[in-house]
């Protein structure tokens, strides 16, 4: 199973489960997550959702670079649109609170998944960032929009253009995560947080989530459309070919800017 679903005490825990690839999101994993999210969305007994990664090293280390390396401009655009529809916007639009328990690397699509969730907590070993420009790409799963919402435009510009990785402490300082807990207790703490949500009115929570989201909706939907278009354009560049082949060959890229 590329992702697993457990339900207990009105809380669903969804775990991305490709530990040998640091839980990188390929299409099949995104489909598996979408099926489980649809199930918990419709399950009246479930009142809060936790998303985490399997193993002790990664939450999600990004989109699967091996899968996207061979795509062209249209393929890149379709990948971003489909991913946003099936997973990232879907999570953000869930009518129940979704907590990301970031248990390690949350890079690229991994940070984008965490940022689609309503609340984020992390373990001390977490490393968070959007390294797409190091691959000749830009974030394509909502990162250009949601990072600026969470940390402000100036810090988002720095993170995106330097492909930098933040420590959990730094992420806490910038409001990218709300709390840090030891890795051994992270899931328990996520459940405790969810426990405070499941005793509230599910109807009121649904309305609250919708109201908060509505404040960002218009600029975000315009921004996401642009993000998908620019993400797609990157797939036509030599830099993209260099960046992805360098990653897969485990060498440093040498970009020419075309
Ligand atoms: N896509 C596909 N495979 C990935 C991946 C990704 N995003 N991230 C990690 N993997 C794979 C590696 O290729 C490796 O596979 P292999 O054992 O078959 O060679 C395995 O996961 C373990 O990763 P590795 O790089 O050996 O671990 P590390 O501890 O040396 O480095 C990271 C960890 C997270 C720094 C590094 O894996 C990395 O930079 N990943 C890509 C991050 C990224 O750019 N994400 C954005 C994608 S758009």
Describe this structure in words.
- With 258 residues, the chain is an alpha/beta fold.
- It has 2 domains: 3-198, 2-enoyl-CoA Hydratase, Chain A, domain 1; 202-249, Lyase 2-enoyl-coa Hydratase, Chain  A, domain 2, CATH 1.10.12.
- It is 52% helix and 16% strand.
- The protein has 10 helices and 10 strands.
- It is globular, with a radius of gyration of 17 Å.
- The model has no long low-confidence stretch (mean pLDDT 98).
- Coenzyme A (COA) binds at residues 21-22, 24, 61-66, 105, 107-109, 131-132, 135.
Please describe the structure with a list of short key phrases separated by commas or semicolons.
258 residues; alpha/beta; Lyase 2-enoyl-coa Hydratase, Chain  A, domain 2; 4-stranded mixed sheet; binds coenzyme A; 6-stranded mixed sheet
Individual helix count: 10
Question: Helix and strand string, N-terminal first?
Answer: EEHEEHHEEHEEHHEHEHHH
Which percent range fits the helix content? 40-55%
Radius of gyration: 17 Å
Average pLDDT: 98
Derived structural class? alpha/beta
The share of residues in extended strands comes to 15-25%
- By CATH's scheme, which homologous superfamily of the largest domain applies? 2-enoyl-CoA Hydratase, Chain A, domain 1
Task: Supply the CATH architecture of the largest domain.
Answer: Alpha-Beta Complex
By CATH reckoning, the class of the largest domain would read Alpha Beta
> Strand order of the main beta sheet, please?
1-2-3-5-7-10
Q: What hetero molecules are in the model? A: coenzyme A
Shape: globular
For the record, the count of structural domains works out to 2
Low-confidence runs (pLDDT<50, min 5 residues)?
Answer: none
End-to-end separation in angstroms reads 40 Å
- Please summarize the sheet with the most strands: 6 strands, mixed
Return the CATH topology of the largest domain: 2-enoyl-CoA Hydratase, Chain A, domain 1
Beta-strand segment tally: 10
């Amino acid at each position: 199973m590329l992702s697993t679903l457990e339900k207990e005490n009105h809380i669903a825990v969804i775990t991305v489960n490709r530990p040998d690839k640091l839980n990188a999101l390929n299409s099949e994993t995104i489909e598996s997550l979408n099926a489980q999210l649809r199930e918990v969305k419709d399950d009246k007994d479930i009142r809060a959702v936790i998303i985490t990664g399997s193993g002790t090293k990664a939450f999600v280390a990004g989109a699967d670079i091996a899968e996207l390396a061979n795509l062209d401009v249209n393929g890149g655009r379709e990948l971003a649109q489909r991913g946003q529809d099936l997973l990232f916007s879907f999570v953000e639009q869930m009518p129940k609170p979704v907590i990301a328990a970031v248990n390690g690397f949350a890079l690229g699509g991994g940070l984008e998944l965490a940022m689609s969730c309503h609340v984020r907590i992390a373990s001390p070993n977490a490393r968070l960032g959007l390294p797409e420009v190091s691959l000749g790409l830009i974030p394509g799963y909502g990162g250009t929009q949601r990072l600026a919402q969470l940390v402000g435009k100036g810090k988002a510009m720095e993170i995106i253009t330097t492909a930098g990785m933040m420590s959990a402490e730094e992420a806490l300082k910038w409001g990218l995560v709300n709390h840090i807990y030891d890795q051994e207790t992270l899931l328990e703490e996520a459940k405790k947080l969810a426990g405070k949500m499941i005793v509230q009115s599910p109807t009121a929570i649904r309305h609250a989530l919708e109201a908060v989201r509505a404040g960002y909706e218009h600029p975000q939907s315009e921004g996401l459309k642009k993000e998908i278009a620019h993400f797609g354009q990157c797939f036509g560049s030599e830099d993209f070919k260099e960046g992805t082949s360098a990653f897969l060959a485990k060498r440093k890229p040498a970009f020419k800017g075309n």
